[in-house]
Specification:
Helix content: 55-70%
Order of helices and strands: HHHHHHHHHHHHHHH
Number of helices: 15
Structural class: mainly alpha
Number of domains: 1
Enzyme class: transferase
EC number: 2.4.2.52
Shape: globular
Catalytic activity: 3'-dephospho-CoA + ATP = 2'-(5''-triphospho-alpha-D-ribosyl)-3'-dephospho-CoA + adenine
Radius of gyration: 18 Å
Distance between the termini: 15 Å
Mean pLDDT: 96
Low-confidence stretches: none
Pfam families: CitG
Transmembrane segments: 101-124
Bound molecules: ligand LTSJ6FE6, adenine
């Protein structure tokens, strides 16, 4: 009997997760159904267009896992399809970076979900299998940064690693997505089970992720000291005040008002919310 967790169904779940993320509203500093947050160059329609442009590449990533390709052999295949997805994204957005981080994260998670579907297991198994693809390669990739030739400029995340040892998206993936499996996903599951709407459960999950993830977008936009000392108590206050079961969005709107002057955008947390939605859908397939 054909597994209901086929490459097609996994790819469809990845696309649905990316759309759910951008539609979750109101997200502080981020693009959503109401507005642009701290982004002058992106809006909801662009994110939807970008998600549709990268969707055709999800199936190949899932297939690599479903075929139980060993992690290190899978890396080259995932990288190739990921690079093509990135090109498709930039074509669709006119060169704006909407989902570069998500392409990396979701490619790994789709491999992991395919592997878990074939070998047996749920969200935790999928995240663990995903992390094995990049385990070890992150350290060597970051170690080579200091000797990077001048014609290949460092990215925001790479600069932050050299300056502060921040591992950002790479550390999250290599660590088996702890902000998702230990924080975002349990909050999403519990909130929905208690009767919250999926949108409001997603907002609660986002705040939980913002409180724990090492978001290189926040750091490169507002500075390491702000991210270390000012950002955490602001997020904690919104987390304390926002109840997905009795949704009053004022704490989220007040947080966005504090973010706007500094262009603070938790884009990394937004990507991890997409990953949270994906694993939530994966468990229900
Ligand atoms: C591994 C790569 C994806 C790393 O790429 P790169 O080094 O170029 O990027 P970084 O600067 O390291 O940031 C990566 C993006 O990842 C998101 N992110 C940040 N922190 C985290 C975290 N802790 N956990 C998860 N994800 C995180 C974030 O991406 C989102 O935000 C971007 C949009 O926001 P914006 O502020 O507009 O971003 P910019 O355009 O950079 O800023 P402005 O100029 O506008 O101010 C968007 O990308 C969202 O997705 C970070 O930006 C990559 O190098 C890689 O290896 N790719 C290979 C191809 C591939 O994907 N292969 C498949 C898997 S092997
Ligand atoms: N909704 C969003 N707004 C801004 N940056 C993002 N990166 C991923 N999702 C995003």
């Amino acid at each position: 009997m054909k597994s209901s967790r086929s490459a097609k169904t996994l790819a469809a779940a990845a696309h649905e997760a990316a759309v759910k993320e951008v539609m979750t509203t109101p997200k502080p500093g981020l693009v959503d159904a109401e507005g642009r947050g701290c982004h002058e160059d992106m809006d909801c329609a662009m994110f939807i267009k970008s998600a549709e442009a990268i969707a055709p590449f999800w199936e190949i990533q899932a297939e690599a896992g479903l075929s139980l390709l060993p992690p290190k052999e899978a890396l080259a295949k995932l990288r190739e399809a990921g690079a093509e997805a990135e090109l498709a994204m930039f074509r669709a957005t006119g060169g704006i970076n909407t989902h570069k981080g998500l392409i990396y994260l979701m490619s790994l998670l789709l491999y992991g979900a395919g592997f878990a579907a074939a070998a047996g297991g749920g969200a935790a198994r999928a995240a663990e299998a995903a992390s094995l693809v990049v385990r070890g390669s992150v350290a060597s990739e970051l170690a080579s940064l200091a000797s990077r030739p001048p014609d290949r400029p460092l990215s925001n995340g790479e600069k932050l690693f050299l300056a502060h040892g921040v591992t950002g998206i790479r550390g999250e993936a290599e660590g088996a997505f702890p902000s998702v499996t230990r924080h975002g996903l349990p909050v999403l599951r519990k909130s929905v089970a208690s009767g919250a709407s999926e949108n409001d459960a997603g907002l609660a999950a986002l705040l939980e992720i913002m409180a724990v993830c090492c978001d290189s977008n926040v750091i490169h936009r507002s500075g390491f000291d702000y991210w270390k000392n000012i950002y955490p108590p602001l997020v904690a206050e919104a987390r304390r005040k926002f109840d997905p079961l009795r949704p009053d969005y004022r704490p989220l709107r007040e947080l966005e008002k504090k973010f706007l002057p500094l262009r603070v955008s938790p884009g990394g947390a937004a990507d991890l919310l997409s990953c949270t939605y994906f694993l939530y859908l994966f468990e229900k397939i």
